[in-house]
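hi!! sorry for the late reply, been swamped w classes. u asked for the two structures so here they r. pasted raw, havent cleaned anything up. first the sequence of the first protein and right below it the tokens
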Amino acid sequence: MPAHLARDASNDLVEHMRLERKAFAAKIRMTRALVGWSQTELAHLVGLTQRSVHKLEQGETEPRRSTVGLIEQLWQKQGIEFEDLADGGFRVRARPELFAAQDPASPRRTRQLPGAN
């Protein structure tokens, strides 16, 4: 394979990985907002530090497969599903009660997984 083709393929792969990392970051932020968890609460549930969750949400670090798996399990337990789209975006489906209107003046409510104490 000519060097310029290999370089182009390598650049494409790097860009694809960057876009996947950014999409995963957006999914984490969206899920935390839906469920009402802080970064610290999510970190506790998956065995990370708050700083690690922050970095994941910024797309700054490539998550470990085990971390992705744990976070995806949390999404599933909360009734949140993501569908990756061909254009690089995604679609989310969530239980209706996650969208229940809350009084903005009331204190922030958090929802925890059963047995997550």
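now the second protein. again sequence first, tokens right under
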Amino acid sequence: MKFIAKTFHGLEPILAAELSEAGAEAVEELTRAVSFEGDREWIYRANLGLHTALRVLVPLHTFSCSNEKQLYQGVREIDWQTYLSPRDTLAVEAVVHSSFFTHSHYVALKTKDAIVDQLRDHFGQRPSVDIKTPTLPVQVHIRENQCTILLDSSGEPLFKRGYRQETGPAPLNEVLAAGMLKLAGWPREDASFFDPMCGSGTLPIEAAMMATRTPAQWYRTHFAFQNWKDYEPELWEKVRREAGERRILTAPPILGSDSHPNAIRIARINAAQTDLHTLIEWKHEPMEECTLPEKKGLVVFNPPYNERMPVEEIDSLYQLIGSNLKHRFAGFEAWLLSANEKAIHAIGLRPSRKIALFNGALPCKFLKFELYDGSRKFKKNQEA
């Protein structure tokens, strides 16, 4: 079977690597997605285990169409009785990049009409629409005159891990956080992890999950595929059992700190929804006074951008970040995500790597800073 896993722009290579390491076949990077092949079990495995996927889609049918009549007929070529009965519910979401179709809502409406009309013709009744919890979420993708109909096996997007109970003013998406960690090379043997501006705790919690080989959706209770007619609960339990057997409930030091006490309160609440909360240390400390891990390692954080979370004197904040990285974090490797180009220059350190990512609609830079003990020239001489 062929599948498509959707992700964020910039994370396609990371998701492709995840799939290849897990044993998927014919892995191919697309735009904000990765296609792969596997047996039916992969619907369950991909939803449970992938850290950097937003949804797992199952393509049903691809056809050419350049008007609404051809779209309607193409959708009706699928035998929808295989997937739906009049007692079930559906929801249709459309993604359109076409000169023939300009309104995604209209494409979704015509697709829905074709599905329910076919079932009404056969049963004399039609299924209802349920936007929130449909039995069968359907996606229609149109690029120019090529239309693909897909089933959404995930339902709610996969950044909803099941552990987030509360959020701060600008929460970091869990899939983006996982992608940042993988880009930074986490987990690492014999190295600590530290987020000095942890907010609601997403990065430390995701770091703990990766270090313990905990599947991304281990704490989530429901997926759309569990409503499907061909759902196999025994196979799902087998997939979960095998994943659970691979977990290790130990981890290197993982720390999160923040200058706001409410952020630490929220982070503790979210971490407490997992069985990994004892592996994470939380501290109410500003970056300039934070307690560093005894074991040096990786620093990853997402400071304010002065966008969704306004900050007075944003340049001063980034100058403070740069000063702390230089003088207090020598020997660590630091990665920072920001959408504020002007403030980034105020850090005053030259990044050794820049990666373009998006935080929602905001274009960001994910920057790597190598913080050597002593001068960089001295470090190069040592290596020589």
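hope this helps!! also noticed smth abt the second:
DSSP finds eleven helices and 15 strands in the chain.
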